[in-house]
Write a structure and sequence with these properties.
The protein has a domain of 65 residues. The protein has 4 helices and 6 strands; from the N terminus they run H-H-E-H-E-E-E-E-H-E. Strands 1, 2, 3, 4, 5 and 6 form a 6-stranded mixed beta sheet that branches. Strand 4 and strand 5 form a beta hairpin. The longest helix has 9 residues. The protein is globular, with a radius of gyration of 15 Å. The N and C termini lie far apart (58 Å). The C terminus is likely disordered.
C-alpha cells in the first residue's frame, strides 16, 4: 500500500514533524498551509468557523480548530494569500476578529 502524502513527506516540514512526533498525537502550535494540508490528508478535519485575527502590533493570523476521532487541536497560521484562497475554494467560513488595542505582552516584557 502506498504511503500517504503526510507519511511520505512529513520529515520535510519541521512544524509538521514537531506536531506529529508526540505520544499524544497532533499538538497545538504554529503551522503553515502545507502543515494544514498534511493534517487534512492524515484524517483531521477543520471544525468551522476559522477565526482571522488582526491585532495592532501583530501580523494577521488564523486560528484553525482541527478535529479527529473526538480529539481537537488548535493551529495558528499566518495570513497568506494561499491560505485565504484555500479557505475560499473549500467554502470554509471565516470569522474576522479584529481588535484595536495593542497586543498584550507577557509578564517578562512588562515593566
Amino acid at each position: 500500500m502506498r504511503p500517504s502524502v503526510a507519511e511520505e513527506f512529513a520529515e520535510c516540514l519541521p512544524a509538521w514533524s514537531r506536531l506529529q512526533h508526540r505520544p499524544e498525537g497532533l499538538q497545538p502550535g504554529y503551522a503553515d498551509l502545507a502543515d494544514l494540508l498534511f493534517a487534512l490528508d492524515s484524517g483531521w478535519e477543520i471544525d468551522p468557523p476559522v477565526y482571522a485575527y488582526q491585532e495592532t502590533g501583530w501580523r494577521p493570523y488564523y486560528h484553525i480548530l482541527l478535529k479527529r476521532e473526538g480529539r481537537y487541536v488548535l493551529l495558528s497560521l499566518p495570513d497568506t494569500e494561499a491560505l485565504r484562497a484555500f479557505l475560499k475554494e473549500n467554502g470554509i467560513r471565516v470569522e474576522v476578529r479584529s481588535t484595536g488595542s495593542p497586543a498584550r505582552r507577557g509578564k517578562r516584557d512588562s515593566r
